[in-house]
Amino acid sequence: MRTSFRPALYSAVLALVTAACADKALAPKFQPQVANTPNVVFSFQATGLTNITDALSYTWNASSGRVVIHPSTVTTAGTITLNIKDAAGAVIYNGTVPASGDITPPTGAAGAWTIRLTLAGYSGTINFAVQMM
């Protein structure tokens, strides 16, 4: 008689995937709204966050190295850091996401950019967009 290990393997993989997803602070309790439109805009919004510590990373394709960051964030506790690297790996922006006021970082290299958001004990609402100029 031949024993199949497939059901046990599938169960083990499912358990690992479920555990990995449970470690993300923004999922499933908080669902950020992300718009990632190549060569136009990358936007991120999450509301009702309470004491979240997490790091999220996205890739955004930019055919131009000129961008403007439009923030609209309400922080009631903790910190949030936005780190943007251009296609060459140069840091274009590394700082907080302010409540308001457009930010025009230096020009970067066109291509695949990395947008990383780091939250530390963050409570509030995050809303920002990185738009090509």
Describe this structure as you would to a colleague.
Helix content is about 15%, strand content about 55%. It is built from one helix and six strands, in the order αββββββ. By secondary structure, the protein is mainly beta. Strands 1, 2, 3, 4, 5 and 6 form a six-stranded antiparallel β-sheet that branches. The model is unreliable at about 5-25 (pLDDT under 50).
List the keywords.
single chain, six-stranded antiparallel β-sheet, Jelly Rolls, 54% strand, 1 helix, 133 residues, mainly beta
Number of domains: 1
CATH architecture: Sandwich
> What class, by secondary structure content?
mainly beta
Characterize the overall form.
elongated
Helical percent range?
A: 10-25%
Mean pLDDT: 84
Largest sheet: 6 strands, antiparallel
Unreliable stretches (pLDDT < 50, length at least 5) are: 4-24
In brief:
The chain contains one helix and six strands, in the order αββββββ. It has 133 residues and is mainly β. It has a single domain, classed as Jelly Rolls (Sandwich), CATH 2.60.120.
Write the SSE topology:
Layout (H helix, E strand, L loop, with lengths): L5 H17 L10 E5 L3 E22 L4 E5 L2 E12 L5 E6 L14 E22 L1
